[in-house]
Amino acid sequence: MKETAGIVLAGGMSRRFGGEKSLTKINGKEMVAYSVEAFAGLNDIVIVARPDLAVKILQTRRICVIFDLPQYRGKGPLAGIYSAMTEIDAEWYAVLPCDTPWIKQSVIEKLLAQRAPEWDVIVSRAGGRLQPLISVFHRRAKEKIRAKLDTGNLSMRSLFEDCRVKIIDFEQKKWFANINTKDDLK
Ligand SMILES: Nc1nc2c(ncn2[C@@H]2O[C@H](COP(=O)(O)OP(=O)(O)OP(=O)(O)O)[C@@H](O)[C@H]2O)c(=O)[nH]1
């Protein structure tokens, strides 16, 4: 079993953005690459992408790319986290979305520093807003996630109600800004 793996969620439909959000370049680099780089301290990183995008990501990065498990396809971020946990057996999993290009490795390091037996999830909060997809999960959370997926209750907040959650506050809101639309790029 690995100690800690990194999961980049890139399996969304990008409906608001319209087009391939994860592969859109900012300052010459694909958005998904910023998330991969924030995991620089980790040896095992998996991108959970849509099948139609995976080939393109594979062409640009030497990194493990998987798809959501078929039974959970279309079920959102929890499907991606669960699929990655099934692919890589690790004690802890650091999670990032593919659309936070200003995220820093130091954020991940600060979250990982909180790993302890009493927590199932360590989640960031920036400017008072919880950032459920910039977080760290213990493998204990995997079965709780599966239960949510199987009942169709797909909200991260609902999952957190069933977990022992440690919240870590950050002041630098800009690092957590995410790109939803093409206007957000301006
Ligand atoms: N693997 C996986 N990742 C997902 C899924 N849904 C969303 N994500 C990822 O989760 C992060 C946040 O996604 P959202 O912004 O809520 O959704 P989106 O699909 O990117 O965009 P919209 O279609 O405009 O809502 C992004 O990194 C997405 O790629 C999914 O079903 N599977």
UniProtKB/TrEMBL annotation:
Its main location: cytoplasm. GO terms for biological process: Mo-molybdopterin cofactor biosynthetic process. Mg(2+) binds at residue 99. Keywords: Cytoplasm, GTP-binding, Magnesium, Metal-binding, Molybdenum cofactor biosynthesis, Nucleotide-binding, Nucleotidyltransferase, Transferase. Its cofactor is Mg(2+). GO terms for molecular function: GTP binding; metal ion binding; molybdenum cofactor guanylyltransferase activity. Residues 6-161 form the MobA-like NTP transferase domain. The keyword Nucleotide-binding applies. It is an enzyme of class 2 (transferase). It holds the Pfam family NTP_transf_3. The keyword Ribonucleoprotein does not apply. Gene3D superfamilies: Spore Coat Polysaccharide Biosynthesis Protein SpsA, Chain A (3.90.550.10). GTP binds at residues 9-11, 21, 68, 99. It catalyses: Mo-molybdopterin + GTP + H(+) = Mo-molybdopterin guanine dinucleotide + diphosphate. It is found in: Cytoplasm. GO terms for cellular component: cytoplasm. Its EC number is 2.7.7.77. The N-terminal domain determines nucleotide recognition and specific binding, while the C-terminal domain determines the specific binding to the target protein. Transfers a GMP moiety from GTP to Mo-molybdopterin (Mo-MPT) cofactor (Moco or molybdenum cofactor) to form Mo-molybdopterin guanine dinucleotide (Mo-MGD) cofactor. Belongs to the MobA family. This is Probable molybdenum cofactor guanylyltransferase. It comes from Weizmannia acidilactici.
